[in-house]
Design brief:
Rossmann fold, elongated
Length: 452
């Protein structure tokens, strides 16, 4: 079995845990890769989400050998046998713990900000990671959760080696796994997308996990203002496209995400940006421009005209929804999706209020760039030199209000600490500054001289 990504893995894992719904639960994810998986589990079980930050205590002269672990709240779990055999003195143990606790507290502050950790005492705690390899981190997390008062521990992962429960016997009360394949060489081999999860993405997942959600029927308006946050399907020509629509209470704008590879709704980077936009009062629609079958043909990823047509059809659907029909629409594009966003925005009937491209290929919309009237922001990583040049070439063809923003230190995927946050804030400010006026006012008169 192969998972598309951590979101897909989390949903499949959640299906195995459905019987726990209704219990007094807390779902905790192991940072960083376990948190996107845990978010899907928490949402399916309607349970609070938190991280469980642990640090291994390594033997001073052999750090890879664990002699214990620490957690928040002063929790320390020791393997007395290893401490004794390695002849670690109390002073040496204290020095290791002090060093690791500084790092543990730094990470906890980074992930949670000012939020207090969720209390585990008396709860059933579901400990979630994106997979088990050696099991050392999961073992430490279970032990720390137990020390913090958990009454029952369920260790749940999408994938693990066949003997994983033997390795971790006694550390959890229950073990749940979607698949235990053989041979097993590493967790990453069972994911199509196993890209690194950033600190910013962990923070976004925690924010999404704590926001109350009320589902609104899709066949009519709600009687009272409410949040709509649900999976949707849109008919676009001969195919149905999957998406995720989030409408915060009192939303004043809606941003449609376009990603050329077809993975928009699962992309952790897009989800991070969407969460930040939601916090700012913007609704978001993340959807897949291509069906899973179409995505197998690499040529479709670069068929900008096809992608733009899909984006236009989805926008028409969005404008028929009760919660979004009166909202100005903006486009957020990444990769070839940025070209599709500009191509679609150039249509005379589009009425798009603003466009943002992150690490995109706007140059691929070359024939249509001069017809774009929506204010356009191009965001590129400072170390993504080839794409910077391509964006500059595209910018030279734009006649609408436009700007090129370069995020220092960022490479193409904005994986470096703080860079995705910076890009998301640039996008938020651009949309807030241009969408609020509405599409007609934001676009202004016929395209005039280039503005930068």
């Amino acid at each position: 079995m192969e998972f598309a990504d951590r979101v897909d893995a989390g949903r499949r894992l959640a299906a195995k845990l459905g019987r726990l719904q209704g219990e007094d639960l807390v779902v905790v994810g192991l940072p960083r890769g376990g948190v996107p998986v845990a978010l899907e589990v928490a949402r399916a079980l309607d349970a609070p989400l938190d991280v469980i930050v642990v640090r291994k205590l390594g033997v001073p002269f052999q750090p890879e050998l664990g002699m214990g672990a620490i957690g928040e709240g002063g929790v320390r779990v020791l393997n007395a046998g290893v401490v004794r055999l390695a002849r670690v003195s109390s002073d040496e143990l204290a020095a290791v713990e002090q060093r690791e606790r500084v790092e543990l507290e730094r990470r906890a502050r980074r992930f949670r900000g000012d939020r207090l950790p969720v209390r585990l005492d008396g709860k059933t705690v579901v400990v979630v990671d994106d997979g088990i390899a050696t099991g050392s981190t999961a073992r430490a997390a279970c032990q720390v959760a137990r020390a913090q008062g958990a009454s029952r521990i369920v260790l749940a992962v999408p994938v693990a080696p066949p003997d994983w429960t033997d390795r971790l016997a006694g550390d959890a009360d229950e073990f749940v796994c979607v698949d235990t394949p053989e041979p097993f060489f590493g967790v990453g081999q069972f994911y199509a997308d196993f890209s690194q999860t950033t600190d910013d993405e962990v923070t976004a997942c925690l924010e999404r996990g704590r926001r109350p959600v009320v589902a609104v029927p899709t066949d009519g308006p709600a009687d009272d203002p409410a949040v709509r946050d649900e999976e949707v399907n849109v008919q676009a020509g001969p195919v149905r496209l999957a998406g995720h629509l989030t409408v915060p209470e009192a939303a004043v704008e809606v941003v449609v995400f376009a990603h050329g590879s077809g993975s928009s709704r699962h992309s952790p980077r897009n989800r991070f940006v969407a969460a930040l936009l939601n916090q700012a009062g913007l609704a978001t629609l993340l959807f897949d421009l291509l069906s899973p079958e179409e995505e197998l043909d690499r040529a479709n990823v670069f068929d900008v005209e096809l992608l733009a047509r899909r984006l236009d059809e989805v926008t028409t659907w969005l404008r028929a929804q009760p919660e979004t029909r009166d909202l100005p629409v903006g486009y957020f594009g990444a990769s070839t999706g940025a070209a599709a966003a500009l191509w679609a925005a150039a249509e005379s009937h589009a009425r798009i209020a603003a466009v943002v491209s992150r690490g995109g290929r706007p140059d691929l919309a070359g024939p249509r760039l001069a017809a774009v009237s929506a204010p356009t922001l191009l965001i590129v990583g400072g170390r993504d030199h080839v794409v910077i040049d391509l964006n500059r070439q595209a910018q030279a063809q734009l006649r609408c209000e436009n700007s090129l923003a370069i995020v220092p230190g960022a490479t193409h995927l904005f994986e470096e600490p703080g860079t995705l946050q910076a890009a998301a804030e640039l996008a938020r400010d651009w949309f807030k500054g241009h969408l609020a006026a509405g599409p007609e006012e934001a676009q202004g008169p016929e395209p005039g001289p280039e503005r930068r």
